[in-house]
Amino acid sequence: MPTILITGAGRGLGLELAKQFAAAGWETLGTVRDLAKGAAMPRGSQTFLCDINDRASLARLARDLKGKPIDVLFCNAGMYGKRKQGVGTVDYDTWAEVMRVNVFAPMACVEALVDNVAASTRRQIVMMSSRMGSIGANTGGGEVVYRSSKAALNAVTKSLSVDLRERQMTVIAVHPGWVKTDMGGGGADLTPEQSVAGLKKVVEGLTPVSNGKFFNYDGTEIVW
Ligand SMILES: NC(=O)c1ccc[n+]([C@@H]2O[C@H](COP(=O)([O-])OP(=O)(O)OC[C@H]3O[C@@H](n4cnc5c(N)ncnc54)[C@H](OP(=O)(O)O)[C@@H]3O)[C@@H](O)[C@H]2O)c1
Fold first, then answer.
1. Would the pTM count as exceeding 0.85?
2. Is residue 79 part of a domain?
3. Which structural domain range is residue 67 located in?
């Protein structure tokens, strides 16, 4: 059975990803910042205490995994920051924090676990981006903090897809839709179950041809 490691697996989309991959028989590993949150993880899955913003914590995770092959590294954890930041309302401290969590941490996760992914059969890395990070699809403007963080994550994804190609890896970004989670809010379009059902199909269908692409949860491609 393939193995998936999901960051931020204690709630929201990360937890639903853990539930659906575990139910499908995948060996499911998840990171949480607080072990109490891992209590919700599905039976048979394994929860690791790890702060993805802390290089030492990531190095400990890599050590604990003891070279275990990871077929899919799903960098899911992320934050929005204060809403409606634009001209005159930018809080630069929270912008820095959002960049740290949404851009630096996923890259650091890849740095820490790239050998585990390389040792697997599938060799796939999935970055949880957002359509709001697409420059080509940005007709609405606004939300400069969240948008710029996911645009930067997209740039990281694209570069990794080129850099890790020689190690036969597939690196993609995904948009989960607008989903009813703590981040998405109650008025969102999709339930986590609906979004993750689509994301799971995207992951299961990945081939080397998918490398360097940005997929919506329904499998359609999104312009970078
Ligand atoms: N919901 C949507 O509509 C939507 C749309 C587009 C993209 N996304 C993306 O989907 C991903 C998951 O979002 P969600 O909707 O499930 O949101 P959520 O319910 O707010 O969950 C966020 C997850 O990220 C983790 N996280 C938040 N801040 C963190 C930090 N500073 N350091 C480490 N981990 C942190 C949380 O862990 P803790 O429990 O420890 O806080 C939690 O596991 C994010 O990358 C988000 O940008 C969501």
1. yes
2. yes
3. 3-216
